[in-house]
Amino acid sequence: MDSVELILASAVRLAVPLAFAALGEWIAERAGTLNISVEGMMLGGAFTAVAGAGLTGSASAGLLFGVAAGLLVAFVHACFSHRLSVNTYVVGLTLNVLVLGLTSFLLLKTESRQVDKLTIPLLSDIPVIGPALFDQRWPAYLLAALVPAAWWLVRRSRWGLEARAAGENPQSADVTGIDVNKRRRQALMLCGALAGLGGAYLAVAEVGTFNQNMTAGRGYMVIAAVIFGGWTLRGTLAGVLVFGAADAMRLALPALGYTLNPQFLVASPYILALIAMTFFATTRRGPAALGRPFVRGIT
Amino acid sequence: MTLTRPGARHADRAPVRSRLRTPLLYAVSFAVALALAAALVTVGGHSMADALLALYQGSLDGGASIGQTIDETTPLLIVAIGAIVSARAGIFNIGQEGQLIVGAAAGAAIGLFVPGPGWLVGALALLGAALAGALWAGIPAVLYYWRGVDVVVATLLMVFVAMQLVSFAVNRDYLLQETAVEGQILSPQSDLLPEGVRLPRLGEYPDFNLGTGFVIALAVTGVVAYLLRHGKWGFRLRMLGLNPVAARRAGVRAAALGGGALLLSGGAAGLAGGVMLTGGVYRIQAGFADNVGWEGLLVALVARNHPLVAIPVALFFGVLRAGGGFLASTGVPRYLVSVVTALLVLAAAFPAAYAELRKRRRPAVEA
């Protein structure tokens, strides 16, 4: 029983940074950007969070620096792909190379700084799920507010309707007077802020320092989560949790005396996403104009 | 008497200005990119002159360095040619990094375990590498034409599966892991390929020498460039890429041609992996691909999907990669090279896109 509790707690802990970024990626994809630079946003967020924490002496301030880095990457991406209509995948990949190179080049040694844990009394004593849900670093609880907020923004607000229209049918959206590329840029900026926060969480809440390439493909895992979830918010969060669990098992199983091959567990998020895409392709589909640049007048 | 449109007098002067504007834009955006890189070096507390000197020494100074540059160029060029083929068909494959490493792993398996004369095994290894790369691209192709799964996403996800697959293989002594030597810790890598299987090198070390892989790369480039321009296949491929609906109406079989283009681009990436393996690395390990797949894709982008333009672009990227290996000796981290590469790619993408944007914004009368 103890080991289940342990793995669950570790799964949630590993899923939190993914969840922040996945929220953002979900918004961006709904508006029609298959945002590959989420990896760079997270990595940049992690780096500046640690640098900012060192500069101000406060780990919590580091989170804000992380958000700023994510926004900066998003701004460059948005200008290139939704102003200049450069192929969004190429821009995304290039930005990932850029951020990875930049953070490795500037690699700094700082003392470890971590934000505090917030253990909620009583609730954290619930067996099995207590430690997983109510004994985390405090920024993790931001998710409790951000998830409903993101859902409301995309599914219920006017802005969300327009952004989704930009993702589904940009030509029609344009005709009704929606500035398609503007909505896409805004969605991308939201994604940048959230992914930057996710990377910052990874750095100043979970690990405490910055290591070279510390996100190590988590951004791509986030993309896989959105696809795995069939472009719904619920499914995306479920995907994030499943991937967190796979990661937790990779870390925990050897200690518990089980052997499951680690390469398979690392690859499992991507395989699961591919399987999900294959089988849900007819029932649950992504935004129709996902990844296609919008240029007025060309159909 | 010729009909003159309103504003025609104006139009006489406009082309001169716009013809000048594009090179100017290129110059400015490259200057900005290089200035940013220089600022970065200075901020890092290093000397720009030292960094440039190291880049030059590592890539162009003397025969060995030039050979090194060409060796770095070879796989980039092959990957880029494959990327160009699929991009021309309107299919965007971004999984070259995975196709490359899977190809190399297959090549290593053939080179290590197939008996026979060296040259034959070497040729089989290259062929096997290309086939394995094509197979790895074939999975997304099947998913696309069978279930409508997005090619970009599928090829991207397959990269990470490929990495783990190869990591799995080099960690198992019954697969590709090196044979145990008494008193030595096993590393997650394969044995070195036997001498006979390796691609021969032309010229003598340490003077000018280059791998025969470069000849393969040039041959592939030439064939693809010719076929794209003059062949029936190339014509159909371009038609499919430019207007899939019209192509289908004209009798182009989209699944066969498009899927074939995707397989070809995967095969090219696999071949690039095979050439890297038999031409210089000689063994496979988890970090084998070393961004060559991603960068090859960027070469195709910068070359704007023209096979012949890809040659100088790949050479330029090769110079940066070869020089990067030398940078470390000056204390400048070699990651500078990835920063410069990325900045240059963005700088190369900017002017054309900007010109396009201006053209769209201009009032309809003039356009």
UniProtKB/TrEMBL annotation, chain A:
Localisation per UniProt entry: Cell membrane
Superkingdom: Bacteria
InterPro entries listed in its UniProt record: ABC_transp_permease
Signal peptide: none
Keyword Methyltransferase: no
Gene Ontology MF terms in the entry: transmembrane transporter activity
Pfam family, one: BPD_transp_2
Taxonomic source organism: Sinosporangium album
TM annotation in the entry: 45-76, 88-108, 138-154, 187-204, 216-233, 264-282
Source taxonomy: Bacteria, Bacillati, Actinomycetota, Actinomycetes, Streptosporangiales
Keywords: Cell membrane, Membrane, Sugar transport, Transmembrane, Transmembrane helix, Transport
Protein name according to UniProt: Simple sugar transport system permease protein
Topology within the bilayer: Multi-pass membrane protein
Gene Ontology CC entries for this record: plasma membrane
Keyword hit for Calcium: no
TrEMBL record, chain B:
InterPro entries: ABC_transp_permease
Tagged with keyword Transmembrane: yes
An annotated Gene Ontology molecular function: transmembrane transporter activity
Pfam families reported in the protein's UniProt record: BPD_transp_2
Stretches that traverse the bilayer: 23-43, 73-91, 98-114, 120-144, 151-170, 208-228, 308-329, 335-354
Main localization of the protein described in the UniProt heading: membrane
Superkingdom of origin: Bacteria
Subcellular location: Cell membrane
Listed GO CC annotations: plasma membrane
Bilayer topology term: Multi-pass membrane protein
CDD domains xrefs: TM_PBP1_transp_TpRbsC_like (cd06580)
This protein's record includes keyword Phosphoprotein: no
Protein keywords: Cell membrane, Membrane, Sugar transport, Transmembrane, Transmembrane helix, Transport
Protein name per Swiss-Prot or TrEMBL: Simple sugar transport system permease protein
Source species of the chain: Sinosporangium album
Classification of source organism: Bacteria, Bacillati, Actinomycetota, Actinomycetes, Streptosporangiales
